[in-house]
């Protein structure tokens, strides 16, 4: 099986950074402190729904548009706005103490692909192929796995 | 993010602190030449003044014989020039911290600074000493910075009338991870708890985002693209940021160890071409002469920012007198190399940012003392095709104000007017990778990768039945020089033909810029994707002094036997 189609064990549940996050704050070696989220309540609840309703499995099969919560035809302004809106909730600096950086990393890589016209065109083509073939095969030929995860523009 | 340790210490009573006193962290901009402090006062950022009512304080420490604890430059700026001539004052430590004696910056400093910097040129720490009662008293850059921070802490506590422990410090983008470790160590020595070591442009970006808040409220507000050029005495940073609705996304960050100190050294060598041999003895007279030359040259450079010519008239003793008029054209010619380097750093950053062309840049933001120099201003505005620079910020205060904002954010302060509704999304300034493919450098995390970041690459064995592999982690610094950050072995790889075991190496940088390197082994065809041995997780850097020598020793001892090969087909 190709490496790219199997979730890495560095991000899968059997290898998490939970022991850094779930323990009680204890030592003076900490490098960061939690921030209370400077965001309105409806943002927070929206995110709570997002994070709880999405298992890692669903996340890998949903499209980048789903990750940003936008329509497939969204324009650049909408993509940027969606990214900023999610960043203000999901970025670790904003401080939901239990949030893992994975969510933000996923949002950023979706944004990185969709905000680059060339990468977005490639992705849209692969998405089209995947949607047509996805029902029949588990490893679609035209879709190159989760390449976008490791392929940021910035 | 909050980086919390995965263990508890029985005697640790630290946990109660937060509930009792929600302390607002102060921002510290500790510069090569000057330093400033600021704090969020509940509605805005205030700069903390010293007893002489100054907001900018000289960064230096004077060693005295009567006290074991030396005195920093918080309150006695007027005596600075006199003290500098005596060899008892140590300064420019931000430029020297975390550098080895093979570094050209250290060897240049050893020839031009009026105290003792001995270099052996073998890749170890330089020996630094202050002259106290005609005796060289040794110190280290970490110690000098720590002594200085103790003074700053005391000053802040006196002004704020409360204990100060939590701080956000700004650092140059060019700082290596080894240098960051040293600064963090200085803070720990001074009893300060570092919430963030923040690249100076990231702090400026936060301030800029706050200033833009009224203009582009909401998520659909139009994005403003800014170019930040920051040059102080020791370092130069460039960043491209895109800001809307209080969120600044950094698009590219570049830094270099060039600064006003280079302009000063070039100018001193031009005025006294034989100065290296003239001052090599480091006697009292030589130190005094070096001090006189340095003060006069610095003064001349400052004046040349505002007037076309300046007269230098000094007596260095030993019959060496300098009396000449210098004009701006000569100054610019002497420092041509420095200005060219600044230009190419800006070009590189623009290129990395993928901004289609400079017309997309809305604001050119100048920060740092060197940006008073008309030539530098012209270079930046010329490249960006702008006639004016952003006028909303004070170049000398922007970084510390941004650090204070970050301090408030990191302390969990909420502002009811929304003026702390801010976020800077940072990028990584240096490439990180491991040694593989026969002593080659294989990058895993590239420059300008948005943080937090996680990247993974798959390697395989280089030999038949290879059961161990050495993971040597490097950071790429200035001029693509590689710095050893640390190393560890992956053991227990099942015996197999070469090229079969998959060794995954994952690098993870969290939002507070902490780097962890993880490695695991998977055997394809074994029917499971589970690692065959426990995963390794190592916080970097682990290497310390003499890491250059260490890298050579590792390569000599294990280079070929424990090598890895990149599995290209898996990526």
UniProtKB/TrEMBL annotation, chain A:
Tell me the ranges covered by the J domain, including all copies: 63-127
Instruction: Please name the Pfam families in this protein's record.
Output: DnaJ
Bilayer-crossing residues are none
> Which superkingdom?
Eukaryota
CDD domains, alphabetized: DnaJ (cd06257)
Which InterPro entries does this chain map to? Diphthamide-biosynth_chaperone, DnaJ_domain, DnaJ_domain_CS, J_dom_sf
Q: Extract the PANTHER family matched here.
A: DNAJ DOMAIN (PROKARYOTIC HEAT SHOCK PROTEIN)-RELATED, OS03G0244950 PROTEIN
Name by which UniProt lists this protein: J domain-containing protein
Q: Which organism is it from?
A: Deinandra increscens subsp. villosa
TrEMBL record, chain B:
Tell me if ATP-binding is a UniProt keyword of this record.
Answer: yes
ATP-binding recorded as keyword: yes
Q: Which GO terms describe its molecular function?
A: ATP binding; ATP-dependent protein folding chaperone
**Region Disordered: start and end of each range?**
1-20
* Keywords, alphabetical: ATP-binding, Nucleotide-binding
**Family per record:** Belongs to the heat shock protein 70 family.
By what name is this protein known? Heat shock protein 70
């Amino acid at each position: 099986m190709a490496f790219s189609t199997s979730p890495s064990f560095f991000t899968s549940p059997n290898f998490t950074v939970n022991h850094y996050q779930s323990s009680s704050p204890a030592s003076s070696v900490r490098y960061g402190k939690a921030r209370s989220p400077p965001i309105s309540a409806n943002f927070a609840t929206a995110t709570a729904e997002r994070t709880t309703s999405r298992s890692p499995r669903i996340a890998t099969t949903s499209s980048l548009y789903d990750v940003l919560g936008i329509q497939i035809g969204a324009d650049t302004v909408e993509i940027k706005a969606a990214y900023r809106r999610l960043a203000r909730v999901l970025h670790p600096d904003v401080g939901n103490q239990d949030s893992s950086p994975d969510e933000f990393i996923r949002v950023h890589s979706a944004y990185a692909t969709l905000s680059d016209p060339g990468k977005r065109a490639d992705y849209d083509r692969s998405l089209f192929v995947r949607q047509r073939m996805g029902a029949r095969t588990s490893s679609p030929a035209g879709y190159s796995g989760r390449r976008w995860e490791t392929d940021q523009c910035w | 993010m909050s980086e919390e340790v995965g263990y508890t210490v029985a005697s640790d009573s630290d946990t109660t602190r937060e509930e009792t006193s929600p302390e607002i962290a102060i921002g510290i901009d500790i510069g090569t030449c000057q330093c400033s402090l600021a704090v969020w006062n509940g509605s805005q950022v205030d700069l903390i003044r010293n007893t002489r009512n100054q907001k900018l304080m000289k960064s230096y420490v004077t060693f005295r014989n009567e006290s074991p604890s030396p005195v920093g430059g918080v309150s006695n700026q007027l005596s600075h020039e006199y003290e500098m001539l005596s060899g008892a004052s140590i300064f420019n430590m931000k430029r020297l911290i975390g550098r080895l004696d093979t570094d050209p910056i250290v060897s240049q400093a050893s020839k031009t600074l009026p105290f003792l910097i001995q270099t052996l040129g073998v890749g170890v720490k330089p020996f630094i000493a202050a002259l106290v009662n005609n005796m060289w008293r040794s110190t280290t850059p970490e110690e000098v910075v720590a002594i200085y921070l103790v003074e700053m802490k005391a000053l802040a506590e006196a002004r704020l009338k409360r204990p100060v422990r939590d701080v956000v410090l700004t650092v140059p983008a060019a700082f290596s991870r080894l240098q960051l470790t040293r600064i963090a160590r200085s803070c720990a020595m001074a009893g300060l708890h570092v919430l963030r070591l923040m690249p100076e442009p990231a702090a400026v970006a936060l301030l800029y985002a706050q200033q833009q808040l009224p203009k582009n409220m909401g998520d659909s507000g139009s994005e403003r693209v800014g170019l930040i050029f920051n040059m102080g005495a020791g370092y130069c940073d460039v960043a491209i940021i895109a800001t809307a609705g209080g969120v600044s996304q950094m698009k590219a960050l570049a830094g270099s160890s060039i600064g006003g100190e280079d302009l000063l050294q070039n100018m001193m060598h031009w005025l006294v071409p034989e100065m290296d041999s003239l001052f090599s003895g480091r006697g009292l007279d030589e130190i005094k002469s070096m001090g006189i030359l340095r003060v006069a040259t610095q003064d001349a450079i400052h004046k040349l920012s505002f007037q076309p010519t300046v007269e230098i008239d000094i007596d260095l003793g030993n019959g060496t007198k300098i009396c000449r008029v210098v004009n701006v054209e000569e100054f610019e010619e002497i420092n041509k190399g420095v200005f060219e380097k600044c230009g190419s750093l800006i070009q590189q950053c623009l290129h990395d940012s993928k901004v289609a062309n400079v017309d997309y840049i809305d604001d050119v933001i100048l920060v740092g003392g060197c940006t008073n120099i008309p030539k530098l201003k012209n270079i930046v505005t010329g490249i960006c095709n702008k006639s004016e620079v952003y006028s909303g910020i004070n170049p000398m205060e922007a970084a510390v104000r941004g650090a204070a904002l970050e301090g408030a954010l990191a302390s969990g302060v909420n502002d009811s007017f929304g003026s702390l509704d801010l976020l800077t999304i940072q990028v990584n300034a240096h490439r990180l990778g491991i040694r593989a493919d026969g002593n080659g450098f294989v990058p895993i995390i590239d420059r300008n990768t948005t943080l937090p970041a996680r990247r993974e690459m798959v390697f395989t064995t280089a030999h038949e039945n290879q059961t161990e592999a050495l993971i040597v982690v490097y950071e790429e610094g200035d001029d693509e020089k590689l710095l050893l950050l640390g190393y560890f072995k992956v053991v227990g790889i099942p015996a197999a033909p070469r090229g079969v075991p998959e060794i995954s190496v994952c690098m993870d940088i969290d939002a507070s810029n902490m780097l962890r390197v993880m490695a695991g082994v998977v055997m394809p065809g074994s029917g499971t994707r589970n690692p065959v041995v426990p995963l390794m997780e190592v916080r970097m850097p682990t290497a310390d002094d003499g890491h250059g020598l260490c890298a050579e020793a590792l390569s000599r001892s294990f280079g070929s036997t424990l090598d890895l090969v990149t599995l290209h087909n898996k990526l």
